[in-house]
Amino acid sequence: MKTIQHLLYILIVVIFASCSTKMTEPQSVSINQTVSIFPDYAGVTVPANIAPLNFYIEEKGIEYQANFVDASGNGFVVKSDNGVVDIPLKKWHKMLASNAGKSINVKIFVKDNSGKWVDYQLFTITVSSDNIDSHLAYRIINVGYILWNKLGLYQRDLTSFRQTAIMLNRNTDGNCMNCHNFNQQNPEQMMFHMRGKYAGTVIARGDEVKKVNTKTPVTMSAAAYPSWHPGGKHIAFSVNLISQWFHGVDKKNEVYDRASDIVVYDIENNEITTSPLVSTRHRESLPNWTPDGKYIYFCRTEEVSESIAWDEVAYDLCRIAYDVETKTWGSVETVLTAAQAGGSITFPKISPDGKWLMFTLADHGYFSIFNKSSDLYLLNLETNDFFPYPFNSGDVDSYHSWSGNSRWVAFSSKRLDGLCTRPYFSHVDEKGNFSKPFVMPQRDPLFYRSYKDNYNVPELVNGKVNINRASLLEAARDNALQANFDPNIDVDGLSGASRIEQSVLH
User: Fold this and answer.
1) What is the architecture, at CATH level 2, of domain 27-128?
2) What residue spans define the domains of the chain?
3) Cβ pair 81, 63 in contact under 8 A
4) Per-residue DSSP letters for 251-305?
5) 27-128 matches 135-485 in fold
6) Lowest CB count within 10 Å: 150, 275, 406, 467, which one?
7) What is the 3-state secondary structure (H, E, C) of 65-120?
């Protein structure tokens, strides 16, 4: 009997010991030096629902230990023999959930060849009480944009490392796909463009999936650069005559609009409309609806002129009221000029709370992904004050999207290697204060050093895109439904690029 009691006692001790949060540290020598890790997650702010920030310890050693400890002294230990800190998913999420609004300390220990342990200055990871949308959608394409016959639209579960395909162009004979867009982060309302053999715009609303030819006899091109109206029945586009070329000297890619107008597509009535106010000889592009659906913000620059070189083109930020029910347009208002901003304003994106507008600023043009001068800026829509994102890099920082709660921004950056765009996240509070950005975590922390494809157009989505793949594929391969042009528009009264003689445009 005593033996059984003794065994039970030992079992209880073992159980409690296994649940203990007491942290162990090797006998070590402290050095006044910050540890070098990749990716750089030191001092970042993360949402409580993010996947583990696995990282690689760059310091030379034969053994490694990382202690993750909260303010109460609770935490866990990760040991490694190769410098890779592979954080257990369940322990990570448990720690983040219990420390929302607080910080976690990370202390690194490294054993050198002599068997001596050293510990580095600890760094912190702040856990925000603001969660991020659960998924990120993006396009993966070859870094040179040459092998675009192999690309796809993907989504990543940000709470884990699971990536799944939304649509792959290997299923549509290797055609180009681009400009995926969602209505208010809704995974059930999305669209993307098909180019080439199966050209058209695929629009999905729940179980309804269709492909539309948005090029009409009046408009100069098929639709591009979409923005959903929050009501889910309309999408604003620009129509563009685009030139693209490579410079032979520096192999730089340039994208240039010879002409562009703003149009609105009525999904249910299959109709394209515009106004002489946004179809002018000026180039109007990159529309973005306000969250209340009352205004379209867009970018505008002068018409094509021989006196203005391609690297001198600069866009202003404008807006115009539009009532989708009455199809009534307001007047064009200039919100911020290129001269005021000190560069070309592009890709305006308004936060869901309607308070902020983030835009890209470059020294010229609008295709910022190829322009090293491209930086992110924030505009306060209440005061019209604007300021640069404080963590802009010396390389491309470009395309961005907002989380549904307006507390996170996802953006593309080439800051890691100057070659490939990677998705980054940054927290922003009610006053417009940003946290240090962090790259989307990967299970293998060295992933970004070997993977040479671009992550393009990172769009935050508040759930997994579950649109039937078979329906998407069927619509993509099917003949496109021809969109109609609004019969109430005085075509002859349009002064826009859609009415300019082609000879002028070449």
Assistant:
1) Sandwich (2.60)
2) 27-128, 135-485
3) yes
4) --EEEEEEEEEEEEEETTTTEEE--TTTSSSSEEEEEEE-TTSSEEEEEEEPPP-
5) no
6) 150
7) EEEEECCCCCEEEEEECCCEECCCHHHHHHHHHHCCCCEEEEEEEEECCCCCEEEE
Alpha carbon 243 to chain centroid distance? 25
CA nearest neighbour of 131 among 52, 44, 53, 47: 47
Question: What are the residues whose beta carbons fall under 8 Å from the beta carbon of 132, sequence distance 6 or more?
Answer: 47, 49, 50, 158, 403, 407, 408, 425, 460
- Give pLDDT, residue 469: 86
C-alpha distances in angstroms, 367 versus 252, 319, 362, 371? 12, 20, 9, 7
Model pLDDT, residue 365: 83
Per-residue tokens: 298: 């867009």
In angstroms, rounded to a whole number, what is the distance separating the alpha carbons of residues 506 and 490? 26
Phi, psi of 34 (to 5 degrees): -80, 145
CATH T-level topology, domain 135-485: Neuraminidase (2.120.10)
Please state whether beta strands 186-194 and 45-47 pair in parallel, antiparallel, or not at all (unpaired): unpaired
- Answer for the pair 455, 448: CB distance below 8 angstroms, yes or no: no
Start-end of H helices in 300-343: 338-341
* pLDDT value, residue 253: 60
- Residues 435-449: pLDDT tens digits? 999 999 999 999 999
Q: Is 219 in a helix, a strand, or coil?
A: coil
The whole-number pLDDT of residue 272 equals 96
**Residues of the chain falling short of pLDDT 50:** 1-21, 246-251, 497, 500-506
Backbone angles phi, psi at 410, to 5 degrees: -105, 140
C-alpha dihedral sign at 278, 281, 282, 285: positive
Three-state DSSP state, 370: helix
pLDDT of the residue at 370: 78
Task: Provide the token pair at 214.
Answer: 């948005």
Both tokens of residue 358?
A: 């983030």
Residues 6+ apart with CB under 8 A from 436: 43, 44, 45, 391, 426
Which amino acid, residue 387? Answer: F
Rounded CA-CA distance 132/406 in Å is 9
Return the pLDDT at 431.
Answer: 95
Q: What single DSSP character describes residue 405?
A: T
What is the C-alpha to C-alpha distance for residues 431 and 441, in angstroms, rounded to an integer? 27
Residue 457 near residue 139 (C-beta atoms within 8 A) = yes
Host H or E run for residue 23: none
pTM confidence score:
0.91
Cα–chain center distance at 223: 21
The CB-based long-range contact list for 299-302 (8 Å cut-off, 24+ gap) reads: 299/345, 299/346, 299/347, 299/348, 299/366, 300/332, 301/338, 301/344
User: How many C-beta neighbours within 10 Å does residue 398 have?
Assistant: 24
Residue 9 buriedness (CB in 10 A; 0-12 / 13-18 / 19+): exposed
3-state helix, strand, coil in the chain (%, to 5): 15, 45, 45
